[in-house]
Amino acid sequence: MGTNVLFVGVGGQGIILASKLLAAGLVQLGYDVKMSEIHGMAQRGGSVTTQVRFGEKVYSPCIGTGEADVVVTFEKVEAVRYLGQLKPEGTLIVNDCEIYSLPVVIGQEKYPENIIEKLKEEVKELKVVDAANIALDLGNIKAQNIVILGVLVKALGLERVNWKEILETYFRGDILDLNVKALDAGINL
Amino acid sequence: MKKLMSGNEAIARGAFEAGCSVAAAYPGTPSTEILENLSLYKEIYAEWSPNEKVALEVACGASISGARSLAAMKHVGLNVAADPFFTMAYEGVNGGLVIVSADDPGMHSSQNEQDNRLYAPFAKVAMMEPADSQECKGFIKEAFEVSEKYDIPVLFRVTTRICHSKGLVETGDPVERVVKDYKKDVKKYVMTPAHARIIHYEVEKRLARLKNYANHCPLNKIEWGSKEIGIVTSGISYQHAREVFGNNASYLKIGFSHPLPDEMIRKFAQVVGKLYVIEENEPYLEHHIKSLGFACVGKEYLPICEELNPDIIRKAFLPKEDKKLHQVDIQAPHRPPVLCPGCPHRGVYYALSKYKDVVVTGDIGCYTLGMMPPLNVTDVVICMGASVSAGIGFKRGSMQGNRNEKVFGSMGDSTFFHSGITGLIDVVYNKTPMVLVILDNSITAMTGHQENPGTGKTIKGEITTKVDIAQIVRAVGIKGENIRIIDPYDLTATNNAVKDAYHSEEPFVIITKQPCALIKEVQKKRAGLHCVVDQEKCTKCKACIRTGCPAIALKHDRVEIDSSMCNGCTLCVQVCKFDSITKAGE
């Protein structure tokens, strides 16, 4: 059986790029990889999910309920929404970030409180990341997806991948330096 | 060399390697990236056509002229292109002709879930269904060969999970790109009734020959495992089935799915114990297998609606497992798709939301989201272009019933070029007193920013003539006094235009001009701009929140604007009666 990673978050957070980078890293190690992405109707603000599966041979690109080895959530409420996808002994990585959806903004629904506390009670392997502030310290909040990717790289034990080579295919100059630092920051957290 | 490619990238790569010379498409999720990737090969003529019918006709003409050609579209696009599709099955090809239909089971971004496999027997064309990216590349090459050898267009049917899943692909070298000679042949290429009567017999013969091919082609294959269970499957369903049953079943994997390989099906069905058919949406394979006289189980256990996945198949066929799933006692609020912060469509919808007796017929594009709260404006969405034509019908029905709703149709620039112009001609010709709002954001936005006839650039980035929407509107006969061209970020101008249109008793058009907030150059230009709430002056009346901008929220009893999301469109500034919001960063 292979390994399953589910990414969830909100359109505009850089989720698809983070999963593409992970998939490229896995190809470098010689794994069979499948990655599936679903981006709904909205470019910004809607739910986004991607799934990465890797191993010796992968058939379906879809991860079943309760089958994800790691669920990476870029937003707290999304962690709650997709918690059922996580294996009993799986790792949950949560970005400590709140993005209000429109029903919350207009007062139809409430943004829940104490999400992290409740997740801590439920999931043994929980990693909470304040990616926005780490990225801000490095110079640009937009690198938060790469910080989160770094945390995932460590959780999956993929530090041996030549990540710089992969980041170089997507970024140049200062932005490349920023993202290399962001990945390291995530790995060393 | 092996590369990670999405199905769409692999289709483009395969077409390139197969010597495809002409490709045309209209953007539509999940098909869009096929043409985007094809356009990167300088050897291929690639174009965004105004709609799918035009795209397919371009490909048909190129095929007759001798070039290997491809047209790509989403499933509902094939409805638009159905007219040339059916007749081209009669005319056959000169250069190979492949039509890619990207279906959307689960309707991640579509208005229906039609299973376009049913088009193949209906139109009498050949059909192929790849199951991963590698097959997308390989099958396309075979599709061009089959098309030329059997003188038939090939329907290349993929789905969202094929198009938007990445897998490893071994790339190869392209064949030499040759355009065949053209020889005039009116009996083949001029489809008059007299010619069609003769050719219909020929079409049936082609299909009979293809039946033989189906039974022997490498696209259909049997993978033996346990013979207790035999599974007939195709496309992504094969991957899900393999995941669930592994070697505990044998598989008849169908890659060439019209005409179906009857001999192979018989051979397989006779030696396996239970026969399962695992397919998404319609029971296309199942009906055929039953018609051959074999008992099988398919839609009895599997749903017709929505996508399949390994979970659904497991639950349908295997004993129930008791899985304990993680859960917490929290209700996650919904996260529906919304108009982006700074979206130029918001202003007009906000203005329209103030009228209670207005019916808004909407269209396919980001502006479909005008139906969402708190704007709640759109009443009707059917298909591309229907905002204007269904608007005519709604107004006429209302008038026949002695009602007097004011009808506003609303569509984007790309949709106007796609199928809005004919509807607008109807408005003028039959003097229907309705309004068409053309939301010109200078891009085909929802599918991820493609050029269109109004943007002044081709898919290859070449500068071209901008087709002028206002000139078309005038040319079809909308009177100058009934046309308003406005900046939708200017709420006063927008309100005035909507008011004038509301009171007009003649055909009326409003054109809003403001580029999509997510276009890279626009983002760069507006990067520093944002709006700020003065907490001293704010009365928390929530007028700004009622614009439905996701950058504005009442957090911890304060109205706050997220400066990283805001692009300074100032709609909130203009609706605030207490002057408590200001624009910053100029």
UniProtKB/TrEMBL annotation, chain B:
Binding site for [4Fe-4S] cluster 2: C549, C566, C569, C572
Catalysed reactions listed for this entry: indole-3-pyruvate + 2 oxidized [2Fe-2S]-[ferredoxin] + CoA = (indol-3-yl)acetyl-CoA + 2 reduced [2Fe-2S]-[ferredoxin] + CO2 + H(+)
Cofactor: [4Fe-4S] cluster
Binding note for cofactor: Binds 2 [4Fe-4S] clusters. In this family the first cluster has a non-standard and varying [4Fe-4S] binding motif CX(2)CX(2)CX(4-5)CP.
Keyword Lipid biosynthesis: no
Top-tier EC class: oxidoreductase
Gene3D superfamilies found in the cross-reference section: 3.30.70.20, 3.40.50.970
Enzyme Commission number(s) of this protein: 1.2.7.8
Residues that coordinate or bind [4Fe-4S] cluster 1: C538, C541, C544, C576
Domain 4Fe-4S ferredoxin-type: 529-555, 557-586
Assigned keywords, A-Z: 4Fe-4S, Electron transport, Iron, Iron-sulfur, Metal-binding, Oxidoreductase, Pyruvate, Transport
Pfam families to which the protein is assigned, alphabetical: Fer4_10, POR_N, TPP_enzyme_C
Domain of life: Bacteria
Family annotation (NCBIfam families): IOR_alpha (TIGR03336)
Function: Catalyzes the ferredoxin-dependent oxidative decarboxylation of arylpyruvates.
Name of the protein: Indolepyruvate oxidoreductase subunit IorA
